[in-house]
Amino acid sequence: VVKAATTMGIVTKITPVPAVALGGMREGVTPLEMASAYGTLANAGTHAKPFGILQVKDGSGAVLFSAAPATTKAIEPAVAYLTTDLLKGVISSGTGKKAAIGRPAAGKTGTTQENSDAWFVGYTPSLVAAVWVGHPGAMTPMNNVHGIKVTGGTFPAQIWAAFMKAALSGARKEEFKQPSGLTTSQICLN
After folding, report:
1. What is the β-pairing status of strands 106-111 and 117-123?
2. What's the pLDDT tens digit per position in 94-139?
3. Threshold 0.70, pTM exceeds
4. How many whole angstroms separate alpha carbon 179 and alpha carbon 141?
5. According to DSSP H, which parts of the chain are helical?
6. Virtual CA dihedral for 55, 57, 62, 68, nearest 10 degrees?
7. Which of 95, 86, 101 is nearest to 150 (CA)?
8. Which of 84, 63, 64 has the alpha carbon at shortest distance from 75?
C-alpha cells in the first residue's frame, strides 16, 4: 500500500502499519499530495508530478516559459479505471452524495477520529481537487460547526462540488474512458 501511494504521488514518508490500507496513518499528507495521487486515477494510471506555474508570458503575449509535466506510469490503466468505477459510487450513492456535480465524477470522503479532520478528494476525467477541513495547529473535534458534525461528506464535499461546478462551467461533460482488455458481465443470483 505504501509503495502504491508513493508511486501515485504521496511524497510524505508513510509508516507501513496494517491500518494504512484504510487511511490510518501516523503521518499527515497534504491536499496537494492527495490531489496528485487521485490525479493518477483520473489520468488512467499515469502520474503527473504537480507544478505551480503552467506558463509565463511577457507583456506582448510571447511565451517566456511553459511547464512540461514529468509523467510516469504508476498503476495499470485497468486498475485506475476499476478504482474510478468504484469511487463513482461514493458520489452517486455513498458518503459523498453532496459532491454530485451533474457530470461523471469519482471521489472519496475521509474523516479522522473525533471529527478532527475531514476530507473530500475527487476528480473528473479532466480535473482533480482535494478539500481538507480542520484546524492546522491541533486535532480539534468539529462536532458542532453551524450545527453540523463535520465529516468528509458534509462541508468538504460541498466545497469540492461548488469549486468543481465553477471550474468546469462551460466545459463539455466527459466520461471516464474504459481501457481495452476489460469486459462487462451481468450476474444474476436469482
Report:
1. antiparallel
2. 999 999 999 999 999 999 989 999 999 999 999 999 999 999 888 9
3. yes
4. 42
5. 2-8, 31-42, 77-93, 155-167
6. -10
7. 95
8. 84
Res 85 pLDDT > 80: yes
Q: Cell numbers 490510518 label which residue?
A: 24
Judged by DSSP in three states, 147 sits in coil
- Beta-bridge partner residues of 134: 117
Residues constituting the chain: 190
Q: What is the CA radius of gyration of the chain?
A: 18
7: which 3 cell numbers?
Answer: 508511486
- Are the C-beta atoms of residues 5 and 11 closer than 8 Å to each other? no
What are the b/e assignments for 112-147, b being 16+ CB within 10 Å? beebbbbbbbbbbbebbbbbbbbeeeeeeebeeeee
- Rounded CA-CA distance 19/22 in Å is 5
Cell numbers representing residue 189 in the block: 443470483
